[in-house]
Each structure stands twice: as structure tokens, then as C-alpha cells.
């Protein structure tokens, strides 16, 4: 539910100040909030992120890319289409990641129920697009 609200906020903000500035403002506020939470609630003996494999830090690149796409597409295709499209992409990619055990996750075979769930999501995308 929060992502739909964020999309609704980002679309008009992006039109008003530009997509990249809107993305920067969202991440700036998020970074400040995260810093405060870390300052007061994070264990002091946690390992440095410099010791982690670099591929695990790709989320730092994927997050802003996601927000920029959200900011650009929402005013064009609407919040419902944007959210269903994102959901379809997330579920299809997660099925691949689960099936092959990518990114250090345990393997979970793709079965009929999971494929059926993806088909329903794609059907929702088609139905909302036709509305």
C-alpha cells in the first residue's frame, strides 16, 4: 500500500521539480531517517559494508532506478498499471531467482501454483490496461 502512495506522491513531484530531483529528495529524506535509526537502534559491533561482496550492494543502484521509473511512468499510465506492472515483474523475476537459487537464496522449484499466480497477475495487468 505504501508503494502506491509513494507513486502518487512521486508523479506530481517529478512533474513539478523533475524526475531526478524528485528521486533525490525521496532518497535524501530516506537516508536521513535511516541514519537516525542507525544512530539510535543499530548494534555498534555490526560488520562494515566494505567487507561485503560488492554485488550485494547493487540494491543501492537498483533502488534509485526503480524510483526514477516509478516517477516517470506513474503520470503516464496511472498508479494501478504501474503497481501491477511492477508486481508482475517482481513475481516473474522472483520465480527465476527461487528456482535457480540465485543471489545466495535457497532453491525452491517453480510449480503449477506459482505459474498460475503469475498468470493471474498478468491477466490483471491486461484487464486494467483495457479499462
UniProtKB/TrEMBL annotation:
PANTHER family, alphabetized: INNER MEMBRANE PROTEIN YDCZ
TM stretches of this protein: 20-41, 61-87, 115-130
Full protein name: Transporter family-2 protein
One Pfam family named in its UniProt record: DMT_YdcZ
Keyword Ribosomal protein: no
GO cellular component, one term: plasma membrane
Organism: Acinetobacter pittii (strain PHEA-2)
Keywords from the named record: Membrane, Transmembrane, Transmembrane helix
Keyword Membrane: yes
